[in-house]
C-alpha cells in the first residue's frame, strides 16, 4: 500500500503574522472571499480589509453563523459564485475555517486560513465537518488539497479565552497514541493511504511539547502576551497535531466523539475536551503497562483538562442505555477499527463506565 503525507504549502506563526496577510493574498489574485463570523468580523474585519487593500486585494465578506449545515454551505457558495473570487480567506474558529474550506473546494481556488483561537487543528487540514439541522454530525468532507497558507498570529491567539486553549490541548494530546494504533493495525490516514513514519514522529513531538510546556502555556492563554512556551504549544496544537492526525491516522479517542454527545450533558462540551476523555478511555482499553494513563491524568489535573464524563459535563451517572448507545455509535466510526483488537459494544461501554 502506498504511503501519503499531506500538509499546507506554507505555515507562518508568530506575533504579528496577520500583518503579512495582504502580501500573501496578492500572490493569488485581486479578489478574495472573506469567510468569517460576525463577531470576528467586527473585531478584525477593518484591519484585514486594510491589510488586503494595501496590496490591491478586494474582499467579499461571507458571514458564517451557527452550525455548518449543507444549506449553509449552499448559501455561502451561492454568494461566492458570482463574485468571481480568486481565493478564499477564512478567519476565526473551527466553523469559519471549515466553511472557508467548503467554499474553496467549490470554487477550485487557493485557501488561506487565519485561526483566531487554538481550539483545534482545523487550520492545517483539508477536512471539514457538516452537521444536520439538529446539531448532529452529518459528514466529514474533504478538500482536494490542504490550505495553501496557514497564518497563525499568536498575539491574536493569546487574546482568546483560556477554555478555547484547553480544548486545543485536549484535541492534540491524543494524536501520538491514535497514530500508533492506526499504523500498528494497518489503518488508513486521511489520504486513504498508509501512514508514513514521519507522521508518527511529528505526533510524538507534539505530545512531548504539550507535556513539557502545557502548564506554562495555559497560564499565558487569554493574557494577550504570547510567551516562548505558548508559542511552542500553539505550534504543537495546530501544526504538529494537524499533520500527526491527517497523515498519521486516528483511533478510539476520536471515534468516541461520535457517541459521547449522546450522554446527557456532554453534547455542549467542546470537541477537544471530548477527545481528552476519549484518550483516557483508549489508553484504558490498551491495557498499557507503562504508567502513561496515570501520568496523563496527573497532567490533565495540572492543566485543567477533564478526566471523567462527569468533569466533561455529564449530568448525574450515565445510564446503561446511554453508555451502550455511545459505544454503538462510536464503533461505527471508521477510526474505531484502528485498534489492537476488535472491540464490541459491551467492552467499550464498560470502559466508558470506568471513566464516568
UniProtKB/TrEMBL annotation:
Broad EC category: oxidoreductase
Pathway(s) the chain acts in? Polyol metabolism; glycerol fermentation; glycerone phosphate from glycerol (oxidative route): step 1/2
Q: How is the cofactor bound?
A: Binds 1 zinc ion per subunit.
Superkingdom, taxonomy of origin: Bacteria
Q: Which reaction does it catalyse?
A: glycerol + NAD(+) = dihydroxyacetone + NADH + H(+)
| SUPFAM superfamilies assigned | Dehydroquinate synthase-like
Pfam families in the record, alphabetically?
Fe-ADH
Which coenzyme or cofactor does it need? Zn(2+)
Annotated positions binding NAD(+):
37, 94-98, 116-119, 125, 131
Boundaries of every Alcohol dehydrogenase iron-type/glycerol dehydrogenase GldA domain copy: 8-154
Membrane-crossing segments per the record: none
Residue sites binding glycerol per the record: 121, 171, 254, 271
Task: Report the EC number(s), separated by commas if there are several.
Answer: 1.1.1.6
> Which keywords annotate this record?
Metal-binding, NAD, Oxidoreductase, Zinc
A GO molecular function assigned to this protein is: glycerol dehydrogenase (NAD+) activity
Fetch the InterPro entries from UniProt.
Answer: ADH_Fe/GldA, ADH_Fe_CS, Glycerol_DH
**Which protein family is it in?**
Belongs to the iron-containing alcohol dehydrogenase family.
Q: What protein am I looking at? A: Glycerol dehydrogenase
User: What organism is listed for this UniProt entry?
Assistant: Achromobacter denitrificans
Amino acid at each position: 500500500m502506498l504511503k501519503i503525507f499531506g500538509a499546507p504549502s506554507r505555515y507562518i506563526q508568530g506575533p504579528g503574522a496577520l500583518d503579512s496577510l495582504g502580501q500573501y493574498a496578492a500572490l493569488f489574485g485581486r479578489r478574495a472571499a472573506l469567510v468569517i463570523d460576525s463577531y470576528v468580523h467586527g473585531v478584525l474585519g477593518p484591519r484585514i480589509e486594510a491589510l488586503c487593500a494595501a496590496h490591491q486585494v478586494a474582499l467579499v465578506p461571507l458571514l458564517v453563523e451557527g452550525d455548518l449545515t449543507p444549506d449553509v454551505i449552499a448559501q455561502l457558495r451561492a454568494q461566492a459564485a458570482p463574485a468571481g473570487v480568486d481565493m478564499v480567506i477564512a478567519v476565526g474558529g473551527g466553523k469559519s475555517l471549515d466553511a472557508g474550506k467548503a467554499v474553496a473546494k467549490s470554487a477550485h481556488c487557493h485557501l488561506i486560513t487565519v485561526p483566531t483561537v487554538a481550539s483545534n487543528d482545523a487550520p492545517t487540514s483539508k477536512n471539514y465537518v457538516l452537521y444536520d439541522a439538529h446539531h448532529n454530525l452529518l459528514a466529514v468532507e474533504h478538500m482536494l488539497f490542504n490550505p495553501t497558507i496557514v497564518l497563525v498570529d499568536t498575539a491574536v491567539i493569546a487574546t482568546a479565552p483560556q477554555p478555547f486553549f484547553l480544548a486545543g490541548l485536549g484535541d492534540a494530546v491524543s494524536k501520538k497514541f491514535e497514530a500508533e494504533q492506526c499504523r500498528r493495525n494497518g489503518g488508513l490516514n486521511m489520504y486513504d493511504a498508509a501512514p508514513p513514519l514521519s507522521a508518527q514522529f511529528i505526533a510524538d513531538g507534539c505530545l512531548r511539547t504539550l507535556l513539557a510546556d502545557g502548564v506554562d502555556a495555559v497560564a499565558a492563554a487569554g493574557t494577550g502576551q504570547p510567551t516562548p512556551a505558548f508559542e511552542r504549544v500553539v505550534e504543537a496544537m495546530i501544526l504538529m497535531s494537524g499533520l500527526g492526525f491527517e497523515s498519521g491516522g486516528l483511533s478510539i479517542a476520536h471515534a468516541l466523539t461520535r457517541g459521547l454527545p449522546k450522554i446527557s450533558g456532554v453534547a455542549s462540551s467542546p470537541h477537544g475536551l471530548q477527545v481528552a476523555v476519549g484518550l483516557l478511555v483508549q489508553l484504558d482499553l490498551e491495557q498499557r503497562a507503562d504508567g502513561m494513563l496515570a501520568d496523563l491524568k496527573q497532567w490533565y489535573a495540572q492543566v485543567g483538562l477533564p478526566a471523567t464524563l462527569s468533569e466533561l459535563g455529564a449530568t448525574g451517572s450515565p445510564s446503561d442505555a446511554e453508555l451502550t448507545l455511545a459505544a454503538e455509535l462510536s464503533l461505527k466510526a471508521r477510526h474505531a477499527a484502528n485498534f489492537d483488537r476488535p472491540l464490541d459494544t459491551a467492552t467499550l461501554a464498560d470502559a466508558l463506565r470506568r471513566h464516568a
